[in-house]
Write a structure and sequence with these properties.
- The chain is mainly α and about 220 residues long.
- The protein has 12 helices and no strands.
- It is elongated.
């Protein structure tokens, strides 16, 4: 299953933002997979923190092969040591186990997230150990398919925005300006910023300042 969007969202973004519109025309429709199971999505995102996509996929496949269905019961029964054996850290195994136990004892209601606002979902998910604002935002977008998610904490989003709008830096004030412009379809805009950041349009470049290592080397040579 892919993130659902269509001509309504495309037409709105192109009308609101000429530069993004040009990007949309060059790239075309983007297919990004989603996981509509909230429990497995939380587990999957905790596993994927600070590791490569390849490593995340490897651990996730081992988990599915061993446990079959990924739910609170199977995770709780596995326990921390067995989860670690699939390749994740002790902390991640502990976070996932604790989350599963909260689901089982009813102290965390995952179903209630569906009726909450984006801000409420972020607050609720961020109360879990191992889940921060960025992880909550990714769950909102790639699991719950909320239409208006643009993550300031996502480095690839910032890179994509620099490349599209030719900025050297995206600070919070500038970010909020674009968020307001692209709302209520920021999630679709996010898909295109990620694509641009990943090199979907070869002639586009990142306008972030280069590090000044070479400048410092030249300065040291000149001072000899």
């Amino acid at each position: 299953m892919y993130f659902e969007y269509g001509q309504k969202e495309i037409a709105y973004l192109k009308q609101k933002d000429k530069k993004l519109g040009e990007v949309i025309d060059k790239i075309g429709m983007i297919e990004r997979t989603v996981d509509t199971d909230l429990f497995s999505s939380v587990v999957h995102h905790i596993i994927g923190q600070q590791i490569s996509t390849k490593a995340q996929n490897t651990i996730w496949q081992r988990l599915k092969d061993a446990l079959g269905e990924i739910n609170a019961r199977t995770i709780s029964q596995a326990g921390i040591e067995e989860l670690q054996a699939f390749g994740m850290t002790f902390k991640k195994a502990a976070y996932i186990t604790e989350f599963s136990e909260k689901i089982e004892d009813g102290s965390f209601s995952i179903e209630s997230l569906q009726i909450m606002s984006d801000e409420e979902v972020i607050q609720e998910l961020s109360s879990l150990h191992g889940v921060g604002v960025w992880t909550a935002e990714m769950i909102l977008l790639f699991c719950m398919q909320r239409p208006n998610i643009l993550s300031y904490d996502d480095l690839a989003i910032q890179r994509g925005m620099r490349m599209v709008y030719h900025h050297r830096k995206i600070d919070r004030k500038l970010f909020e300006k674009y968020r307001r412009r692209l709302s209520p379809y920021c999630s679709v805009a996010s898909l295109y910023f990620w694509a641009v950041a990943g090199g979907a349009i070869s002639e586009m470049k990142d306008y972030a300042p280069k590090n000044n290592v070479n400048h410092k080397k030249k300065k040291r040579v000149n001072n000899k």
